[in-house]
Write a structure and sequence with these properties.
5 helices, 17 strands, six-stranded antiparallel β-sheet, Rossmann fold, Tumour Suppressor Smad4, 17% helix, 257 residues, 2 domains, 38% strand, alpha+beta
Length: 257
């Protein structure tokens, strides 16, 4: 294939046997380079591996093209060994801006980045009690719940959807604030907030009702407060086959019975 050298490709595989075997086959066909020498990284696995790859190379400005070798592939393209160079050249790029979490634990602050969502979850049998503020205005004095999450449009079809939150088209300039098994206020189903909004969660009775904060794969236990805003200096680049782009997948998800 005369075009195969026009792109420097790095092939990364998850720990599954199928993914590792796929990486070996693709390297034989298309060669391969180290990640930092690549024009594009091809991630072989499922959605979890795609998410971890996006996190790992977020600051390197390298686009990620996922190919599904796992069980779930919402962020992935179909696996096919043929015409990969042409697929990559025709792929549509989506740029996403993640969320930044500033969590306080024992008076110390820790940060983490989330592409999908940031969630607060109760750690024990007792329900959590959480105060919610948006842009410095108290919106809910006491949410009694299993937890609460703030989701990006890209993550709206993940945990947010299973918690009965709304699916958000990718181009939307909003994030979803969604309760998880809320007991009080019982009728509150969540809210759509402008992306620029700054959200703060304060954990009430934190010693009696401990809460963990999770930003995608990063968990911080026993937090007392969490502040969330757009990570202005972060951007991820993800590639999709033109006929199966992420925006279309998110819209289509709303019509699945």
């Amino acid at each position: 294939m005369s075009k195969k050298q026009e792109l420097n490709i790095c092939f990364l595989a998850s720990d599954s046997t199928d993914s590792k075997n796929a990486a070996k086959k693709l390297k034989k066909i298309y060669s391969g380079v180290p990640p930092l020498d690549a024009d594009v990284i091809v991630a072989l696995g499922g959605d979890g591996f795609a998410l971890s790859t996006l996190h790992k190379f977020m600051d390197k400005d390298i686009p990620i093209f996922g190919m599904n070798c796992g069980t779930i592939g919402f962020l992935m393209n179909d696996y096919n060994e043929d015409n990969l160079i042409e697929r990559l050249q025709k792929a549509k790029e989506v740029s996403l801006q993640p969320l930044k979490m500033l969590a306080t634990k024992n008076g110390k602050k820790r940060t983490a980045i989330a592409i999908n969502e940031i969630s607060l979850l109760r750690e024990t049998r007792q329900a959590a009690k959480i105060k919610i503020s948006v842009d410095g205005v108290n919106r809910i004095e006491e949410l009694i719940c299993d937890g609460v999450l703030l989701s990006t449009p890209a993550g709206s079809t993940a945990y947010n959807l299973s918690a009965h939150g709304p699916i958000i088209p990718l181009e939307s300039d909003v994030n979803a604030l969604t309760p998880i098994s809320a007991f009080r206020p019982r009728r509150w189903k969540g809210a759509l907030l402008p992306k620029k909004s700054k959200v703060r969660f304060d954990v009430l009775e934190s010693k009696k009702r401990p809460v963990s904060a999770v930003a995608d794969h990063t968990e911080i236990r026993d937090v007392t407060s969490v502040e969330i805003e757009i990570a202005k200096n972060k951007k991820i680049r993800i590639l999709f086959d033109a006929e199966h782009n992420l925006a279309e997948r998110i819209i289509n998800e709303q019509f699945i019975p």
